[in-house]
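the two lines:
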Amino acid sequence: MSKPAAALPVSGTVQQEPVQARARVKTRNKDFKQSDLAGYLFISPWLIGFLLFGLIPLLMSLWLAFTDYDILSPTTNFVGLDNFERMFFQDARYGRSVAATFRYVFASVPLRLAFALGVAILLNTKRRGVYWYRAAYYVPSIIGGSVAVAVMWRQIFGREGVVNAVAQMLGMDPVNWFGNPDTALWTLILLAVWQFGSPMLIFLAGLRQIPAEMYESASIDGATAWNKFLSITLPLLTPIIFFNLIMQTIGSFKVFTQAFIVTGGAPLDSTLFYSLYLYNRGFANFQMGYAAAMAWVMLLVIAVLTAVSFKLSSYWVFYETDVR
Amino acid sequence: MQNVQALPAKNVQQDKRKKQIRDGLIYHLLVGLVGLLMLYPILWLVSSSLKPADEIWTSVYSLVPSTFRFENYVNGWRGFGGISFLTFYKNSFFYTTVATIFTVTSSLVVAYGFARIKFRGKKIWFTVMLLTLMLPDQVLIIPQYIVFSQLDWINTFLPLLIPRLGGSVFFIFMIIQFIRGIPIDLDEAAMIDGANQFGVFYSVILPQLKPAFITAAIFSFYWTWDDFFGPLIYLTDPNLYTVSIALRNFSDSTSVTDWGAVFAMLTLSLVPVFLLFIFFQRYLVEGIATTGLKG
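prediction for all of em together
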């Protein structure tokens, strides 16, 4: 690390430098082993946690996926691919659960990101009061995952809830939001979209990185606000859009609490999200072998989707280093 | 550049100012109204928690109760099944505090290892760690449940707390980023003075990690306070219920008669979250903006 040039007899530290350098060379080998030990000691909490609560359960659930394990029954049989066969060909509820999950993910994630980006652009200004607006738009996200908000949502869209009260005030008929498969799913999508705060803050941070001169020179060239958005903001934000897309998609596939509390999967399994159905199978019916097989399919789907997104990203994600 | 700007005549500049004021008005009207719409459900919840019983479903959309009924809070606090919310709050605070201490302490230690120490296999482990971010919990829950139930840990807080000793990958990653921003000269100076890695971590790095520490602690608090799935499967004894599990039972729509009390308890459960948000907004915003932590 210390450059040999520093050892030139110019400064007053001349006498110390070579001594230190020599000492370093001598102990390098021993140091390396010591730092190995120190490194593993420091990361050991994570490493042990990963082995005990990550890797071992992962392998266990892979094994369970090929069994009929039931926590209440004393015998466990190896059943080969039976769980998967049942899942894909016999279990109609499984199909509905997959459909509900995909509908939810592919509707809520783009909407959420669109809102997040739109509001972030609106808030990316030095106007007065922006600080308060940012807080107001972010607040739903800090409480959104809670049971309290889920219960609140259920009551807002209930038969006698606020939404119907407003509808009636405007002369419309009240809607049974949770009685119809389409509207029930949309109440949950709306709940997800309402919580666009985190991607919004990430977009805001990204927008602040875009140099103001780029917009200024575009203005001089006569670009409209829309032009500037399309040819400056959007391309420069693609890495952040990509990051948000991946994180939000993975997060949406795992949604549980909202569906569990607000709709319970009803009506007609239209909101029976994957993790909710998995919970029902594993913890209400105790079919843990089947649930483990479901979990592994989920893992593979997420892995494949992520890999495909990364592959496709080279076509639309623009990194500044590309031009340099 | 200068010449171009100097060209316009005076009245053009006046027009420009007028346009600015008009744009500002439109901006605040739009952003303010949508902001209010965003907050409306929360304001509605708070106001419903103060309304008299007969008013909750009759003037549903109104945000101002005719009289403020703070009794809703007293009635709600009594809880259900002979267990008051005092028990549920104690459980939640216990779970949240211990889990946060475990998670954050471990994350700090692990982050230092990855950020500052050179050791064989570091790259591989770091990659493995980042990959675990994509791992859905669902794939781990079932085997974990089986093992914990064989250890007789059901209806204790152990299955919820012990895994936290491994730290959280999100926090580890955030703290690594933070440590990388600290100049390495101080470490080297301390090393020359004879400090080992533990000394450097404890007396050089740790004191500078306060902002990262606060951010991690707040997020850990949020996630644990709101945690529903863990307590749902591991805690079946009502005496061990956390607030989120208690709220779910308390608000079971088929049995509720006193909605004012339910709304009061829902509102109360959000208070700790709001307080932290008010006091530590800066840390939250920075934490999300720099590492994409989810709120």
